[in-house]
Design a protein that fits this description.
about 160 residues; elongated; 5-stranded mixed β-sheet; 3 helices; 2 domains; alpha/beta; Helix Hairpins
């Protein structure tokens, strides 16, 4: 069974590795201590602390497995691979909405790093998919649920 490639920037890789290390070294120990304490309360059949700790343990172990799988299937985008001529993963792009003249700036990242609240959009998002491969000055139509938005690429860095 093949797994989907996870595209990461250097900072995204570091963030995932740090999260995995934290889960394995800190969170596992914390939950194990909570389970041990809950067991000392006696009757496990009606022990909410024990149930909560076991549920958290299952969540943490699931997250660890997910992160390890992502890191195994990671493809790192190196800084020297990022073109300044056409939009690609790792680029920061300044776009202008041709209807409202609003200017916005996004960094195109893989789905594992996407964080729209911090202007980091996925290469698989409607905007990301639509602008990849275009140069500065191109006008691109982006299909969104509300219709189509036309953007002009002002800058790639």
């Amino acid at each position: 069974m093949s797994s989907k490639e996870v595209i990461l920037t250097q900072s995204g890789l570091k963030k995932l590795e740090e999260e995995l290390t934290h889960l394995k070294s800190v969170k596992r120990r914390e939950v194990a201590a909570r389970i041990k304490t809950a067991i000392s309360f006696g009757d496990l059949s009606e022990n909410a602390e024990y149930d909560n700790a076991k549920n958290e343990q299952a969540f943490i172990e699931g997250k660890i497995i997910t992160l390890e799988k992502m890191l195994r299937n990671a493809r790192l985008i190196e800084d020297d691979e990022v073109s300044k001529d056409i939009v690609g993963i790792g680029c920061t792009v300044k776009l202008q909405d041709m209807e409202t003249d609003e200017v916005m700036e996004f960094t195109i990242v893989g789905t594992a790093e996407s964080d729209p609240a911090n202007n980091r959009i996925s290469n698989e998002s409607p905007v990301g998919q639509s602008i990849i491969g275009y140069p500065v000055g191109a006008e691109v139509d982006v299909k969104v649920p509300a219709g189509t938005i036309k953007y002009k690429i002002l800058e790639i860095k």
